[in-house]
Design a protein that fits this description.
The protein is an alpha+beta fold and 97 residues long. The chain has 5 helices and 3 strands. Keywords: DNA-binding, Transcription, Transcription regulation. This is HTH arsR-type domain-containing protein.
């Protein structure tokens, strides 16, 4: 776990809000490859939430994925993104040391 990469990823308002929305389960998905209980999103869901271009959203998701805060699963033609709670829990423990 790279603490600096995580801090850099969360230092962007859009990425921070995306992580917070995933944590709070406030993003609904239109992707029929993600079950409700999984709390995942597609790129299209994030585009709809933020109003940003798809390419911009993809870049933000890539930064979050590289930092380990989210992970991606390919499901048919869809890329589905999920919160990596293990990394987030480790990060919070490190901050509290």
């Amino acid at each position: 776990m790279d603490l600096v990469a995580i801090c850099n990823a969360l230092g962007n308002k859009t990425r921070y809000q995306l992580i917070k929305s995933l944590k709070d389960k406030s993003i609904s998905t239109c992707c029929n490859r993600i079950e409700y209980y999984e709390n995942g999103v597609s790129v299209g869901d994030v585009v709809k939430l933020t109003g940003l271009a798809q390419s911009t959203v993809s870049q933000h998701l890539a930064v979050l994925e590289q930092a380990g805060l989210i992970y991606k699963e390919k499901r048919d033609l869809w890329s589905c993104y999920f919160l990596n709670t293990k990394v987030i829990d480790k990060y919070l423990k490190e901050l509290n040391k």
